[in-house]
Structure prediction request, 320 residues.
Amino acid sequence: MNYSPILIVHGEPNSIFLEIFFKSIHLKNIKSPIILISSEKILKKQMKILKIKKKIKIININNFFVKKLDNKSINLINVNYDQKKAFQKISNKSSKFINQSFKIAFKILQKEKIHKFINGPISKKHFLGKKYLGITEYISKKFSIKKTCMLIYNKELSVCPVTTHLPLKQVVKKLNKKTIMEKIILVNNFYKNNLGYKPKIAILGVNPHCESINKFNEDEEIIKPLIKKLKKKFTISGPFPADTIFIKNIRNKFDVIIGMYHDQVLTPIKTIYEYDAINITLGLPFIRISPDHGPNEKMIGKNLSNPLSLVRAINFLDKN
Prediction:
């Protein structure tokens, strides 16, 4: 069987990513060749600090052949970038390197040579500024895809926020039947097409206990009528209060919980599974995953970071 490669963008160079990358590629059961887009100079400096010994094979973006790639070496597409120390404080200095790395990855993905993509964590503050809410939106924009969503996936239970990195005061302004329905369709299609079954989906209300002191109650006026309409086509129920849905005996009834805003579902899922989850962008013409954590600047160079989320990401793509 010919396994297609997994393309990985390093992301922020001053992060824990290379540490967890080295820990992850030591897994013996990975069949898909891994291609890393990073800086050879940074790679060597951080390998020295982390005491990693592995050969680096420089490959050409325009001339690599799947059958010649394996994971005995690090298959590297080199992007020129250097700094005096192996790790420095995160700043805007790395933005050009990150942008160039993504440009190379997007060029490969657009040519459809590869359909498996992982990106390492970045600093939203320094790389995205105020242009995008997050990497999900950044990648979606680059591919001119309007209907995408974030799925924090675990094989036991996944979550999807209808709105992502919005301040709370803006959340209800963005909620409407069309937006919520788009997320439901994307989630349902992902499970059917990639996992082979129709998911049981729970929809959360936006207000505490799905009640509101205001005349207009989003749960009654938007969410409840939408669920009633979609029940014939999807295995869907709700709206449920967010404060009880994650109790074990309740959450076990569902495959996916769709919430109305970011922390409503990401806080409990990370509390339950910690690093055992991956961030998948649904709606793109390829599978894009990132480990479900940030650069973790406080832990860089210590060789103590948990690689489980990246391991799960690689394993997921290796099987799909």
